[in-house]
Amino acid sequence: MAVSKIVLSSLIHIRPITCAASYHTRLVPHPPDLVKWIKKEGGFVHQAVKIFPQEDNETYGLGLVASQDIPKGSLLIALPDHIPLKFESDAGDGADSVLVDLASQVPEELWAMKLGLKLLQERARLGSFWWPYISNLPETYSVPIFFQGEDIKNLQYVPLLYQVNKRCRFLLDFDQEVRRALASVKPNDHPFGGQELNASSLGWAMSAVSSRAFRLHGKKLAAGTRNEVPMMLPLIDMCNHSFNPNAQIIQEEDDSQLLIKVVAETEIKQNDSLLLNYGCLSNDLFLLDYGFVMPSNPYDTIELKYEGALMDAASMAAGVSSPNFFSPAAWQHQILSQLNLVGETAIVKLKLLLESQMKLLFFARLLPYVQLH
Ligand SMILES: C[S@@+](CC[C@H](N)C(=O)[O-])C[C@H]1O[C@@H](n2cnc3c(N)ncnc32)[C@H](O)[C@@H]1O
Questions:
Q1: Do 131 and 27 form a contact (C-beta atoms < 8 A)?
Q2: Quick one: CA dihedral 177, 182, 185, 190, positive or negative?
Q3: 62 exposure class (CB count in 10 Å sphere: 0-12, 13-18, 19+)
């Protein structure tokens, strides 16, 4: 029985696409050696670069660590052009055209789902070139689309909740769209080897991409220019984030092939983690896309809306006599308009930089929910 099951699955060239629990474990218990695979494929990995669980494994998961001092400027990793996983939208017939059709239905802002479809296709394909990479990906992600109801409520910040809801709703709708599209597909043209997808497996793929992909130069266009395309970079994406990174990604052209390199931006001491800067992102974006927030993030922003009625109510609760936020005088309204606090485009993003302001930011986020006495 067991044997016939294996034969069946290898005949139809699929791997199961299911989502299980357990934080930061990999897709399979003993995945292939990623470093060996990259070297075999013509890439380079510095002999002192090792994959290692980070100190705070629950949050950071795995990372890259220096097993000895590495001088500034050293080449740490190099990936030839065929190793990054990209979505090539000029693909041909059959399964690829189904994938391209599905990807065309993904809104631009949820770009991670497009590459996520490609990731799911390769995850399902037995003998996929990228299996040594994919099998090393985390089994689950701690981004808010996977939060339980109570944890979502605890986010307590309307713009963030709005984004989480939007992503969840998209995944549920897209799940239906994918089912519809796959229902009429011939078995040979099925992009996922006949396997069904659901909102959870789509969410896994979208999170894998949003938390690991980098936007780099893609292949040369007719005009000689290059587009920026999101791609997954095996091993390089094991680097965790810091605003004070000790490593950086550079792209080099070599015989019209693009080589992706990571070099040491500073001297790296033995046992230090290799850290990249994922970008100057707000904590909302870090949480939505990566599942963590940066303490004292200098790029954090907050959206504030001037709600006169709410502010009047809060003022009265606080004992302020005769508040008139709801019906400001003409001169007050003019100033509020100049500050873009009222009117059609009234939601403003504030960027706060000082430590004292960070406290204010924290307080401001809680403000609508704090009982004033
Ligand atoms: C590109 S991956 C890095 C490799 C990842 N740690 C792993 O185990 O495969 C990005 C993920 O690493 C974790 N991470 C990276 N930098 C972090 C940081 N500064 N604080 C907390 N978690 C971080 C988050 O889970 C994030 O989604």
A1: no
A2: positive
A3: middle
| Residues 181 and 189: beta-carbon distance below 8 Å | no
* Ligand 1 atom closest to 54 (CA): 6
> Interface pTM (ipTM) of the complex?
0.99
* CA 98/CA 120 separation, integer angstroms: 13
Q: What does the block give as tokens for 336?
A: 């509020």
DSSP 287: I
Nearest atom, ligand 1, residue 24 CA: 8
| pTM, entire model | 0.82
**Closest protein CA for atom 21 of ligand 1:** 60
Q: Is the CB of 212 under 6 A from ligand 1?
A: yes
Tens digits of residue pLDDT in 158-209: 889 999 999 999 999 999 999 999 999 999 899 999 999 999 999 999 999 9
> Does 10 contact ligand 1 (Cβ within 6 A)?
no
Is 27:135 a contact under the CB 8 Å cutoff? yes
Sequence-distant (≥ 6) Cβ neighbours of residue 3 within 8 angstroms: none
| 284 contact partners, CB below 8 Å, separation of at least 6 | 157, 159, 160, 163, 301
pLDDT (tens digit per residue) in 284-313: 999 999 999 999 899 988 776 777 787 777
